[in-house]
Amino acid sequence: MELYFLGTGAGMPSRERNVTSIVLKLVEERGTIWMFDCGEGTQHQILRSPIKLSRLEKVFITHLHGDHLYGLPGLLTSRSYHGGETPLVLYGPPGLRQYVEMTLAISQARLEYPLEIKEIEEGIVFEDDQFVVEAALLEHRIDSYGYRLTEKDQPGKLLADKLAALGVPAGPLYARLKKGEDVTTSDGQVLRSRDFTAPPVKGRVIVILGDTRVCDASRRLSRDADVLVHEATYEAGLQEQAHKYYHSTMEQAAVAARDCGVRHLILSHFSSRYREEEAERLVEELRPIMPNVYAAKDLWSFPVPGNKPRD
User: Is 224 one of the annotated active-site residues of the chain?
Assistant: First the structure.
């Protein structure tokens, strides 16, 4: 599981940063990738990256401002040319369906794959046997959502050596024990799953917020996250300007992350006033508040750390 940043700027592209788009690479987990926001120029960024559009399974839009959305129509049509034939699902605020359908209709675009558009409300927007994605409405000029992605706990490692010592041969019984089932051997011996498996591994939590002031909803989503991606449009001394335009400062994001027990904080959505080196310097100054803080930059990746087995 890895986050890949295609665009990390706010408002409009600059020479160093494109506008917002983040990819969550789930190639090992499910053979796919998920995208969060799709600002103008995202296709061009993909050409400079290892991202394969044919693997794209889901796109989550945080809000309908252009710097998070204008790249979507082009990306949808290009996906067909990149071998994308599997279904694609879009999630986002009300208005997303109208925008996508109208744009595709006027341009007479043809998609060679099934497209589903889900306009969301607060709550769980997706769940399967691997992940749960929850959305919450943040505090911005228009409806802007944050997404909390929770990986479900993984079964503990099978203690194969212990089974072999009892003379239990490898085979279907091993798979059943790993799934949590108790089994009975051919000679009548009862094997309890908990005795032959390590504790389950706690699933990871990734939170990606749209544009927002720090608010109750952003704090709730961020609680105990392994990785939080938080907007940081302004530096610490510009709290009033950030509040006026419904954004956050770098320091506000760091304090919120610390107070919410976040393990790793990635700041993004930087104003074009901050060159890359200056943004990195400003973020470095936040380490006394939040030691594991990073300044995202375009075409940069962050492997999501794994968790230890539960006690």
Answer: no
Residue 19 covered by a domain? yes
Burial (CB count within 10 angstroms: exposed 0-12, middle 13-18, buried 19+), residue 235:
buried
Q: Which of 67, 211, 226, 298 is catalytic?
A: 67
Residue with tokens 């027990």: 261
How far apart CA 41 and CA 47 sit, in angstroms, is: 10
CB 302 within 8 A of CB 3: yes
Asked whether residue 6 falls in the same domain as residue 51, the answer is yes
- Same-domain pairing of 272 and 179: no
Note the pTM of the prediction, 2 decimals.
Answer: 0.90
Residue 310 has pLDDT above 80, yes or no: no
**In-domain check, residue 309:** no
Domain span at 170:
160-195
Centre a 10 Å sphere on the Cβ of residue 74 and count the other Cβ atoms it contains: 18
CA 292 – CA 311 distance, rounded (Å): 24
Which one-letter amino acid corresponds to residue 92? G
Q: Is residue 280 part of a domain?
A: yes
